[in-house]
Every structure is written in structure tokens, then in C-alpha cells.
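Figure S4 source data
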Amino acid sequence: MVSPVALARSFFVALCAAVLAFAPAQAEQGLTVTTTVSWTWEEVGDADDDGAVFDDEAALLDDDALAEDADLTATRRYAPSASLATLGRAKAQFGPFAVVDASTVRMTGDVTSATPRQFAAMLAAYPGLKRLEMIDCPGSLDEEANLILARAIRRAGMETIVPSGGSVRSGAVELWLAGITRRAASDAEFGVHSWSDDTGREANDYAASDPVHAEYLGYYREMGMDDAKARAFYALTNSTPFDEVRYLTRDDMARFITLH
């Protein structure tokens, strides 16, 4: 049975993804080009995946744990530059995943309840995949599915990469953290903000001892952050209101997790 907390979280994450779907990239000089790509679609069957249960207890940090402010805006959908588009036709498409060669898959789009099954079907068809390039990933419409997918990425031993011009936001940041190794270009961006439940209460409206915080902190520790960094990163994300977006750089992320 899905807990009330999980149901509430799925609801507010759906709202979160709707907000971030229209979040822009940081202001850049020059022209942003939107590229239309033709994909080869492949029907896939169902596959199961499992998540893990968090049982950690933790608290939010004070303001002195927060990293430096970054640009905040939210008006349009981010469009990757033409250089990020898959050249030619993808070998196969599985939801937001486009297989481009025997070892590389590119991700563009949201995570839904179906995405973990699509990821499992993709690995079954292409077991040699080890490189996940995250191009334009606004976040998740289903938080539970997002964490299941994140752990599947980790179990598969995949490297996660945000290439030049790439953007990962909200729940997609958790997916990038799941890489067994993580890479990011110098101009890659990471958009974060607080979560909000179906009543409009945000993370900092909950008591520090509330179990909802432990779920996120436990995940960050599971992905390699020590306790202090997990708490600092969680506090940083929650220092920005739900209806705004805080963009972090590669160097910002390197303060919390090892990059290669």
C-alpha cells in the first residue's frame, strides 16, 4: 500500500515538474536553437524494478550551510543547442531514452510511472549500455518512480553525463547523482528548488524531525555523499521556494559529490 506521504509526494512532484517544464536555462549570449530530431520507435514490454525503503532520521541545516545564490527565473522551456541533438536516427527509443550506440543512451524529457519499466526493457535489449547522457531533463511526474529509476541506474553501473549546454532540473538531478561516476561540462546546469506537498506546504514548513526529510537525506548518502554534505545539499535545495528555480554549476555540484 502506498503511504499518504508517498501519495502526497507524487502529487507535489507532478506540480514541480510542471513548473520546471517551463524553467529557462541560465542567460547565455548568442542564439538558442531548438532542434527537431527523428527517432526510430520501438515497442517495449513491461519490466519490473524495485525501490528501497528509507529509514534514516535527519534534520535540516541552518542558513550557514547553504551554498552561494545562483540565477533564478522561470518563464520558458529550456531548449538544447543543435550540437546536443542525436545525429541521424537513434537505434531505438524507450520513453525518454534514445539508444545511439552499443554503449551510449541519451535522455530528454520527464520521468513518469512508466519510465523504470522502459529503462529495464532498454537494458534487456541493449545490455552493453554504460553511458547515460542527460540532455534536457526537467524532472519527474512521479517521485517514487524517479527514485526507483535512480537506483536502477546505479545498479547498472552507468556513468551519468551532462554535456555542454545540457540541463537537468528537479528530480533529474537525483538521476544524475545516481551515476557510478558523474561527469558534467563546465556550462552544464543543475536546477533545484524546494518540494511542496498537495496542501502547499514546503520542506521548511515541516519539523526537522519529520520522516519525509530522512527519505531524501538517505538517498543522498546512498549515492555517495557523507552525512554533512547530504544535509547541506538538501538544505540548499530547500532554500529556494517551490515556485522558483535555483541554477547550480558544475563547480557548485562538485562541493557535494565527486565528479570525474
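Figure S5 source data
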Amino acid sequence: MSHSKVALWRRRSDKVLSSDEVASRTTGPPPPPEWAAALRQLTELSRTPTPAPSWWSPKTAFFGNIETRTDPQGYHWDGMKRLGRRDPPLFFFQLTMAGWGHFQIYGKAPRQVSPGTGFFAIIPSRHRYYLPENSPGWTFGWIGIYHPYLLARVSKQVAATGPLVEVPPDGALTASTLRLVRGAIKKDFRDRFEVEWALFDFLFAYERCAHQARDSSGEGQRLLDAVRSLIVASLPKAIDVEALAAEYGMSRSHFSHFFRARTGLTPAHFATQVRIHEAARMLLGSHAPLKQIALTCGFPNPSHFCKIFRQLQHMSPASYRQAMG
């Protein structure tokens, strides 16, 4: 992204924080007790937003705010009409803390988004969200993220479980969301690495929350965590499905059915995802050449590594390092 576009993005991000819709400037509906303290803290912070540091850009950061909307005529977003021809795709996450609004997928009935419910809006995609005429108002925290890796992961999860997610006030997803909203307002990160850590923490909290909603017993998540540990511990050797099955005293076929029934994934695909995730961390956290990263993460050669990385991350390792580094 050019310097002029980054500068424009920074100006627009700052303008969001000084708009009339900031929660500290507008009186909205009262929050339920479980959201009152968090909303009060963010509202107070929104009175004195902090300018972005020099390294704050779409590649290294994000934007967001705490807002109150009370005019149904002035709040309506269409997911297919938000980008210019050259604008990169992104996603928004919006968490209701008081009042309510509507989120609607094209061709389906609108769904009410009340306190403790959030939604992901992939831009572009066929959806809209808005303040209905009969709503008392809508107060919410929101973040907007361009990070292509996070966008790909969130889009995949949304396709599997839908855009709406229930967010318990004392849960990890709430904590990571509020951290990002606070960070968008106050820019209280030490550097871009701490920002990216917070963004990945948000991603993992969301994926865990979505998985737990389908896996109420927690068995699937425990299995994923255990198998992930086995895969990472085996590096630089790529552990195969037979070896994983042996750890559980099963045949390859039995373990594959067992794993997929509880996680929705095949063990081979999950193992590849884990190794690619480790490679992505190395790309951003070191200057190691691609050959070394490939071998460290269990890939036989850089060519095979680049092919698999591109399949899962939708860009080459070199492009990922350049875009995110």
C-alpha cells in the first residue's frame, strides 16, 4: 500500500474516533448489568483518543471504536457496497453492549443482535446490518482488520458456523475484543509485534468460541490441543497419521474417523495446518531463509513448502513476510 493510501487510512481512522457517533458523545440505551462496567470504561477512554504512532498502518494494525447509534436513517451498511475498486478486502467484528440492531444475510430474515452477541462482516460479502426503526438505539464496540491471514481464517470459520457468535461477558473472546477496541482508541501497544499478538489472540479466541459452541463437552478442543502438541513436538520431522494413531492405540482408519467425528477435520489436514502456522510464525519472527523454515517445519524442500503455504494462506511465503513484516 502506498504512503499516500496509508496516510489517508490513518486520517480516516482518526476521524472515526472524533465522530459524533462516539459513545462518549451520544446518549444511548442503558446496558444490562453484565456489560455496564466494560462499556463505562471504553466510553471514558473514547473521550481522549490517542493519535496513531508512525508504524500504525493497515498492514501492521487495525481500526475501531465504541459507538452509539440512535438514528435509523443514518446507520445502514451493505457488505457489497463498501469497497472502492482498488480497496483491499477486510472484515469487521461488532459486539453489542447495549440496545440492539439487525444483521441480515441477503435473502434471509434479519437477526437481532442484542448485548452479548457479535457478528463478523466480511467485506465484500452479501450481507447488511442496520438500526431498525423500533430499536431503542445500539451501542457496540467494533474493529476492522485487513490482515490477509486473519481474513482467510475468519472467512473460513464464518462459512462453517455463520457470522453471529454469542460472546459471554467473562469469556476470552470478550477480553480480546475489548483489548482491541481499547487499543484502537488509545494505541497502547508497545510496537507492531504486540499488536499482531493481540490480533492472533482475538482469532484464536474466536475459533475456540465457535468450536466450543459445536462441541459443548470440550472433547474436540482437547483432542485438537493434544494432537497439536504432538505435531509440534515432532518437528522438524512431519509426524504421519499412523504415528498419531499409534499414540491413541488405534489403526490409521479408526483414528481418522475418531478425529474427524470430534473436530470436523482430517488428521492429515490438521497436521499440515499446524506446520504451516509454525512456518508463518517463523516468517514473521525471524530472518531465516525459506529453505531453513521449510525443513524446520517438516517440509522436504522449499518448492513443496511454498506450494502448500500458498494453498492455505492464499499468498506465497515471501509475499506473506513482506506484507506482514
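The two ends are 13 Å apart (CA to CA). The chain has a mean pLDDT of 91.
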